[in-house]
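Q: Hi! First time doing this. I have a protein sequence and I read that you can turn it into a structure. Is that right? Here it is:
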Amino acid sequence: MEVRATGIPDLLVMALHPHKDERGFFMECWREEWSAALKLERPFVQDNHAMSVEKGVLRGLHFQMPPHAQSKLVWTTRGAVFDVAVDLRKGSPTYGQWHGLVLSEENMLRFFIPAGFAHGYMVLESYTEFHYKVDAYYAPQSEGGLRWNDPALGIAWPALAPILSSRDSALPSAASVESPFTYRKKL
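A: Yes, that's right. Below is the predicted 3D structure, encoded as C-alpha coordinates:
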Protein backbone atom coordinates (compact mmCIF):
# COMPACT_ATOMS: atom_id res chain seq x y z
CA MET A 1 0.00 0.00 0.00
CA GLU A 2 1.23 3.46 -0.92
CA VAL A 3 -0.28 6.74 0.34
CA ARG A 4 -0.13 9.83 -1.89
CA ALA A 5 -0.79 13.45 -0.92
CA THR A 6 -3.27 15.52 -2.92
CA GLY A 7 -2.17 19.05 -2.11
CA ILE A 8 -5.06 19.47 0.36
CA PRO A 9 -4.08 18.67 3.96
CA ASP A 10 -5.30 15.25 5.19
CA LEU A 11 -6.98 14.36 1.84
CA LEU A 12 -5.13 11.28 0.59
CA VAL A 13 -5.07 8.71 -2.20
CA MET A 14 -4.18 5.08 -1.49
CA ALA A 15 -2.68 2.90 -4.19
CA LEU A 16 -2.96 -0.80 -3.49
CA HIS A 17 -0.77 -3.33 -5.19
CA PRO A 18 -2.65 -6.43 -6.29
CA HIS A 19 -0.89 -9.72 -6.96
CA LYS A 20 -1.82 -10.57 -10.56
CA ASP A 21 -1.38 -13.71 -12.61
CA GLU A 22 -3.17 -15.49 -15.45
CA ARG A 23 -6.08 -16.37 -13.12
CA GLY A 24 -6.81 -12.79 -12.07
CA PHE A 25 -5.62 -10.98 -8.95
CA PHE A 26 -5.57 -11.04 -5.16
CA MET A 27 -5.41 -7.88 -3.08
CA GLU A 28 -5.76 -6.90 0.55
CA CYS A 29 -8.51 -4.26 0.64
CA TRP A 30 -8.04 -3.04 4.20
CA ARG A 31 -5.73 -3.65 7.14
CA GLU A 32 -6.25 -1.97 10.50
CA GLU A 33 -2.57 -0.95 10.59
CA TRP A 34 -3.24 1.34 7.60
CA SER A 35 -5.25 3.56 9.96
CA ALA A 36 -2.01 5.18 11.10
CA ALA A 37 -1.03 6.10 7.51
CA LEU A 38 -4.39 7.81 7.08
CA LYS A 39 -4.20 9.41 10.55
CA LEU A 40 -7.62 8.01 11.43
CA GLU A 41 -8.89 9.27 14.74
CA ARG A 42 -11.44 6.46 15.11
CA PRO A 43 -11.96 3.10 13.44
CA PHE A 44 -14.24 2.50 10.49
CA VAL A 45 -17.63 1.26 11.74
CA GLN A 46 -19.76 0.87 8.61
CA ASP A 47 -19.24 -0.26 5.01
CA ASN A 48 -21.56 0.93 2.23
CA HIS A 49 -22.09 -0.25 -1.34
CA ALA A 50 -23.91 1.72 -4.06
CA MET A 51 -24.65 0.81 -7.66
CA SER A 52 -25.54 3.30 -10.36
CA VAL A 53 -27.23 1.94 -13.46
CA GLU A 54 -26.65 4.89 -15.76
CA LYS A 55 -23.60 6.83 -16.84
CA GLY A 56 -23.96 10.44 -15.68
CA VAL A 57 -25.50 9.78 -12.26
CA LEU A 58 -24.18 12.41 -9.86
CA ARG A 59 -24.38 11.87 -6.10
CA GLY A 60 -23.46 14.76 -3.84
CA LEU A 61 -21.98 16.94 -2.63
CA HIS A 62 -22.77 15.48 0.82
CA PHE A 63 -21.44 15.64 4.37
CA GLN A 64 -22.59 14.85 7.91
CA MET A 65 -22.33 17.56 10.53
CA PRO A 66 -20.78 17.04 13.97
CA PRO A 67 -21.20 15.14 16.19
CA HIS A 68 -21.86 12.61 13.39
CA ALA A 69 -19.20 13.87 10.94
CA GLN A 70 -17.73 11.06 8.86
CA SER A 71 -14.32 10.28 7.45
CA LYS A 72 -14.61 8.06 4.37
CA LEU A 73 -12.44 5.71 2.36
CA VAL A 74 -14.03 5.32 -1.10
CA TRP A 75 -13.36 3.23 -4.23
CA THR A 76 -15.03 1.43 -7.12
CA THR A 77 -14.99 -2.27 -7.91
CA ARG A 78 -16.91 -2.06 -11.19
CA GLY A 79 -16.92 0.81 -13.65
CA ALA A 80 -15.56 4.26 -12.92
CA VAL A 81 -16.42 7.55 -11.22
CA PHE A 82 -15.04 11.06 -11.08
CA ASP A 83 -14.79 11.55 -7.32
CA VAL A 84 -14.60 14.98 -5.65
CA ALA A 85 -13.94 16.27 -2.14
CA VAL A 86 -14.33 19.93 -1.12
CA ASP A 87 -12.52 21.27 1.96
CA LEU A 88 -15.08 22.84 4.35
CA ARG A 89 -12.80 23.16 7.38
CA LYS A 90 -12.72 26.78 8.58
CA GLY A 91 -9.10 27.86 9.06
CA SER A 92 -7.74 25.34 6.57
CA PRO A 93 -5.16 26.73 4.13
CA THR A 94 -7.22 25.09 1.36
CA TYR A 95 -10.72 26.04 2.60
CA GLY A 96 -13.20 25.95 -0.30
CA GLN A 97 -10.80 24.13 -2.62
CA TRP A 98 -11.62 20.81 -4.22
CA HIS A 99 -9.71 17.79 -5.43
CA GLY A 100 -11.04 15.30 -7.97
CA LEU A 101 -9.78 12.06 -9.44
CA VAL A 102 -11.01 9.06 -11.37
CA LEU A 103 -11.59 5.93 -9.31
CA SER A 104 -12.01 2.83 -11.43
CA GLU A 105 -11.93 -0.92 -11.36
CA GLU A 106 -8.73 -0.67 -13.43
CA ASN A 107 -6.73 1.72 -11.25
CA MET A 108 -8.03 0.29 -7.93
CA LEU A 109 -7.29 3.58 -6.14
CA ARG A 110 -8.84 4.43 -2.77
CA PHE A 111 -9.63 8.05 -1.84
CA PHE A 112 -9.50 9.02 1.84
CA ILE A 113 -11.79 11.92 2.67
CA PRO A 114 -11.57 13.09 6.28
CA ALA A 115 -14.46 14.63 8.21
CA GLY A 116 -14.86 18.26 7.24
CA PHE A 117 -15.18 17.71 3.50
CA ALA A 118 -18.19 17.64 1.20
CA HIS A 119 -18.06 14.59 -1.07
CA GLY A 120 -19.65 13.65 -4.36
CA TYR A 121 -19.08 11.61 -7.47
CA MET A 122 -20.20 11.39 -11.09
CA VAL A 123 -20.58 7.97 -12.66
CA LEU A 124 -18.52 7.56 -15.84
CA GLU A 125 -19.70 4.07 -16.86
CA SER A 126 -23.07 2.34 -16.63
CA TYR A 127 -23.50 -0.20 -13.83
CA THR A 128 -20.76 1.26 -11.68
CA GLU A 129 -20.37 -0.10 -8.16
CA PHE A 130 -19.06 2.27 -5.50
CA HIS A 131 -17.90 1.29 -2.01
CA TYR A 132 -16.99 3.22 1.09
CA LYS A 133 -15.96 2.73 4.68
CA VAL A 134 -16.99 5.36 7.24
CA ASP A 135 -15.96 6.04 10.82
CA ALA A 136 -19.41 7.22 11.99
CA TYR A 137 -22.85 5.77 11.39
CA TYR A 138 -25.29 7.39 8.99
CA ALA A 139 -27.32 10.02 10.87
CA PRO A 140 -30.05 11.58 8.71
CA GLN A 141 -30.58 14.43 11.18
CA SER A 142 -26.97 15.54 10.54
CA GLU A 143 -27.09 15.54 6.73
CA GLY A 144 -25.73 18.52 4.87
CA GLY A 145 -24.72 19.27 1.33
CA LEU A 146 -23.71 21.73 -1.34
CA ARG A 147 -24.93 22.25 -4.89
CA TRP A 148 -22.79 20.20 -7.27
CA ASN A 149 -22.45 22.99 -9.85
CA ASP A 150 -21.93 25.97 -7.55
CA PRO A 151 -19.81 28.42 -9.58
CA ALA A 152 -18.04 29.51 -6.38
CA LEU A 153 -16.58 25.99 -6.10
CA GLY A 154 -15.66 25.74 -9.79
CA ILE A 155 -15.56 21.95 -9.91
CA ALA A 156 -14.53 20.70 -13.36
CA TRP A 157 -17.01 17.83 -13.66
CA PRO A 158 -16.83 15.60 -16.75
CA ALA A 159 -18.91 16.91 -19.65
CA LEU A 160 -21.90 14.68 -18.98
CA ALA A 161 -25.47 15.75 -18.34
CA PRO A 162 -25.90 14.83 -14.66
CA ILE A 163 -28.70 12.61 -13.45
CA LEU A 164 -29.59 13.97 -10.00
CA SER A 165 -31.92 12.95 -7.21
CA SER A 166 -34.53 15.53 -6.18
CA ARG A 167 -32.60 15.96 -2.92
CA ASP A 168 -29.30 16.69 -4.65
CA SER A 169 -31.02 19.08 -7.10
CA ALA A 170 -32.16 21.20 -4.15
CA LEU A 171 -28.86 21.47 -2.25
CA PRO A 172 -27.76 25.04 -1.37
CA SER A 173 -24.82 27.08 -2.59
CA ALA A 174 -21.60 27.11 -0.58
CA ALA A 175 -22.12 30.80 0.29
CA SER A 176 -25.42 30.00 2.03
CA VAL A 177 -23.97 27.22 4.23
CA GLU A 178 -22.18 28.01 7.50
CA SER A 179 -19.51 25.35 7.80
CA PRO A 180 -19.67 23.41 11.08
CA PHE A 181 -16.09 22.18 10.64
CA THR A 182 -12.79 23.58 11.94
CA TYR A 183 -9.34 22.71 10.65
CA ARG A 184 -6.95 21.10 13.10
CA LYS A 185 -3.44 20.53 11.86
CA LYS A 186 -2.48 16.89 12.38
CA LEU A 187 1.02 16.07 13.53
